[in-house]
Amino acid sequence: MSVVSMEVKDGLAYVWVDNPPVNAISHGVRQGILEGLVEALEDDGVEAIILAARGRTFMAGADITEFDKGPQPPHLSQVVETLEAAGKPVIAALHGFTLGGGLEIALGCHYRIAATGTKLGFPEVTLGIIPGATGTQRLPRLVGVKAALDLITTGKQITADTALSLGILDRLSGDDLMGQAADFARDILAQGEGVRRLSEIMIDPQSIPAGLFDDTRKSLAKSKRGFESPQACVDAVEAALLPYPQGVAREREITLERRASPQSAAQRHLFFAERACGHIPNLPKDTAKRLIKKVGIIGAGTMGGGIAMAFSSAGIDVTLLEIAQDALDAGLARVGNNYGGNVKRGRITQAQADECMGRISGTTEYANLADMDLVIEAVFEKMEVKKQVFETLDDVVKPGAILATNTSYLDVNEIAAATKRPEDVVGLHFFSPANVMKLLEIVRGDKTAPDVLSTVSALAKRIGKVGVVAGVCFGFIGNRMLQGYAREAGLMLLEGASPGQIDQALYDFGMPMGPIAVTDMAGIDIGTMIRQALDPSAYDANAFAVHDRLVEMGRKGQKTGAGFYRYEVGNRTPIPDLAVDAIIGQEAEARGIARRSISDDEIVQRCIFALVNIGAQILEEGIAYRSGDIDVVYVNGYGFPRYRGGPMHYADHVGLAKTFEIICALRDQHGGRWWTPAPLIERLAKQGGSFHSF
Ligand code: 3HC
Ligand code: NAI
User: Distance (Å, rounded) from C-alpha 353 to C-alpha 347?
Assistant: First the structure.
């Protein structure tokens, strides 16, 4: 079946693109549009041409799966130029999503009409590239440089209303898009308006606010620290001030550079990895889903409140349960304050905040949870408390409801065994703040039913999260790997690095905060408490000696005004503290550890390859289904720089032979207790393989 067809009706040619699911502009689509266009132009009975797409959306962009194959003619830019060069009016009829190359095609057409509800945008920057089929040259000519820079450098989607007010659209249609597109075509013909070509417009340099390009570059250097493509987008838009052919040539040069860049490979990897994690192996797509309309949450603390907001903001009714009325009141007040903060920052309106709060009710009675479809437990991280909660839930909640735990580390199978329905129990591990962080680890117990997994995986998407399925082990995917990262940071403190040096090295690698500052923020005592429940053979006591000393001294982190750093009242900026340097020195001496100068490279290498080595073990054990799932967890839950694609992609980029060599060298230097290379790395290194295939 051809992905493009052409039909003529009443003097109008309709060129239809039909390439499900999102009409990505594949080679066949590019070829087909050109052929349809030529046929329509040669037909004397055709007076105007309407370009439209079948299915749920207009073209959502170039076919990203073709990027690794290299450009194959006809190029997208050739299609756009040919549309614009047509001697008969060409009208784009848009619906669904008009993104990336889809918008470039629409801008090549002479007129644009869209159904209400259409979303438009240039998401290329999120893939590490630029709109490279003349989008950076045509959009500024149409809407002005300032508005074009905003759209192209952020990748945001705008509504059809906004696009109309910016001048991207000429008309909005009601329900009957194609009927109104035909009327529009006839109006154009009746008024003799003919063709309009954006490439013929010259931008008046006087229309550009002084310093706009430099200010935008500076502001993006902060808000998109480390990302190359936002800067490249500014360069390309600036080239729109040149005569059109030179501007397009510059855009082409930048495009080829960006497409070949490691950052683009990393960001494209994540695009597919974030979609792949919704596909659960051995779970047919048509697996039945349970209906989730009402959600109960146990515990209105930091996590319970955030989880309540995540559901309520997605339009789902929530009942929060606490042990006592005062704790419930405090929890609801925190949620109210958070919504209030969102209103103040202009993220939502007061009416939306009221609506969200209206969906959240509180209770101290378990009986009020009887008819919930899903209950999520977010009480203290203590097995005994959690088991008691699940026993009670088993007694009161209706059959068929899903019972979930937000535990960070505990054994989901043991929690499930506290009920008579372990098949209904699953881990739903949210990240703090739960109303903001995109990641949701879905922990499948040994007995979790397939329809429970399928339901919560779809639910993750419904509440705007990326759901990644993990198996049961201490800390699941993310926190288990974090053990290694934190361990190396702690050991390097004793070996000679300062908290500030460690944090700066990892910040410069691209992490939003270094590991020591993160520990201060989360509370140093949380880790101490978790380790107390562990067998001492499970962790390296040296690595956490300073942590435990600080907790003994009451220096638990930001919440006590001091931890590894000092904090001034009401200020979260970490201030280095000589007293902590002294404690580090004492602990190193007491443990016979000689202090030396440690390079920033060593800091990054040890912390990041500790993640990679444990990631490989997790993969081989089947705790994670795919290496991409691990990358999705680290980018969306732990702030691993998106432009590096996640720890496993980073190792692939370094090369697994080199990765194996680095880990072996670390083993030779620090011993095999933590640094024995994962067998999977050794095997892939020897075969010349990569994690990508897993
Ligand atoms: N190329 C190839 N495949 C694509 C694709 C694309 N541009 N966009 C989506 N897909 C695939 C997805 O991988 C997914 O495949 P799967 O079912 O096998 O996992 C399937 O289409 C459905 O996608 P979603 O699950 O994302 O569907 P949603 O309904 O949730 O979202 C969407 C729809 C908003 C259109 C979303 O798919 C999206 O944002 N797509 C990418 C848009 C984009 O980045 N366009 C720019 C491409 S680059 C470009 O155009 C370069 C040009 O300037 C030269
Ligand atoms: P928290 O201490 O802020 O809140 C726990 C709440 O549970 C308190 O309000 C307490 O009154 C209530 N509670 C305790 N026992 C209860 C019971 N039997 N019935 C009803 N309510 C009860 O703790 P936080 O940080 O919200 O953590 C909760 C869970 O979420 C823990 O399992 C934790 O490991 C997990 N988690 C925490 C993250 C974090 O960053 N804080 C991140 C991800 C998971």
Answer: 10
